[in-house]
Write a structure and sequence with these properties.
By secondary structure, this protein is an alpha+beta fold. The chain folds into 3 domains: 2-76; 83-168, no CATH class; 179-294, Glucose Permease (Domain IIA) (Distorted Sandwich). 36% of the residues lie in helices and 24% in strands. It is built from 2 helices and 14 strands, in the order ββααββββββββββββ. Strands 3, 6, 7, 8, 9, 10, 11, 12, 13 and 14 form a 10-stranded antiparallel β-sheet that branches. Strands 1-2 form a two-stranded antiparallel ribbon. Strands 4-5 form a two-stranded antiparallel ribbon.
Length: 303
């Protein structure tokens, strides 16, 4: 039978020793062949299993690294979101303030008509997806844009505050009711009938007519001053000051801060005067100028 066949294997050494003969049966060779095939199959299966395990370990490690990065990103986004919320609140308040300064209506959201705002801006979600992955750089871009808006609003706010301060310290209203009986500039002196130069305007009315401050400022002088009689002087800013003469009564003190529309005295006839009136002067850099451009609410006409 075929399985009873035997095969002779001759081993010839490289030395001078005699060759060796080994006889093996066909059955034995078949067992060896089967064993070798089984070993190769088992080895291949082991290698495949090892590579699969190695791939799983690699994927798990990668997933852990991604989770660590995601947690870091989420923590970073939470910090950035808090900063953005604070800046947005600040910008909202500043925007409303600027609207008030500009005379625009306040832009507050209705509390009941609209649903509450959701955290975050920019149109992206915080949940990673295949097409919309979370990117902290987007928040950084939004923060930079918010910083730019904040700087812009702060600049506008400073500008408006400066403008408001300049407007509040610029004389712009009539300091007393009455008609203008003498204008600024050349005229005939009412006492000598000689050519004269009038450094202000005269507003004529009854004794006791209220005299008000035409702008914010600080009282720099109160008391008698030559032909002007009872006088008040107010410094409005580094360049502008005003004077009020021939008063009947002074209602403020030197060093006192006053605001526009605040009553500072009463019209009178003190000093060298032909009758009850207020002598009103505006000085720019300590030089008298025509007060008329600084009277915006003038309704009366010259007498």
């Amino acid at each position: 039978m075929m399985m009873d066949r035997r095969y002779t294997i001759i081993i010839v050494p490289h030395t001078s020793a005699n060759p060796r003969k080994i006889q093996v049966s066909a059955k034995f060779l078949s067992y060896v062949f089967i064993g070798l095939v089984s070993f190769l199959v088992a080895s291949a299966g082991t290698m495949i299993h090892y590579f699969q395990y190695f791939q799983q370990v690699t994927n798990l490690k990668k997933a852990e690294e991604e989770n660590v990065q995601l947690r870091a990103n989420l923590q970073q986004s939470a910090v950035l979101t808090q900063k953005l919320n604070r800046k947005i609140s600040f910008l909202t308040e500043l925007s409303n303030k600027l609207r008030i300064m500009a005379g625009l209506p306040n832009a507050k959201r209705p509390q009941q008509e609209l649903p509450p705002l959701k955290p975050g801006i920019g149109g992206f979600t915080m949940t990673p997806t295949a097409t919309n992955t979370f990117d902290p750089q987007r928040l950084l871009v939004l923060e930079k844009r918010t910083d730019y808006l904040e700087k812009t609003f702060v600049s506008l706010n400073n500008y408006f505050e400066k403008q408001n301060q300049e407007l509040s310290t610029t004389p712009s209203i009539l300091p007393a009711e009455g008609f203008i009986s003498s204008s600024f500039g050349s005229r005939l002196n009412p006492f000598t009938n000689a050519p004269d130069y009038h450094e202000g305007v005269d507003l004529t009315n009854e004794v006791g007519t209220p005299v008000i401050a035409p702008a914010d400022g600080v009282v720099t002088f109160t008391g008698l001053k030559g032909n002007y009689g009872q006088v008040i002087e107010i410094r409005h800013d580094d360049e502008v000051s005003t004077l009020y003469g021939h008063l009947d009564k002074i209602l403020v003190k030197q060093g006192q801060k006053v605001t526009r529309w605040q009553q500072i005295g009463l019209m009178g006839n003190s000093g060298r005067s032909t009758g009850p009136h207020l002598h009103y002067e505006v000085h720019i850099n300590d030089q008298p100028v025509n007060p008329m451009p600084y009277i915006l609410n003038l309704a009366s006409t010259e007498g």
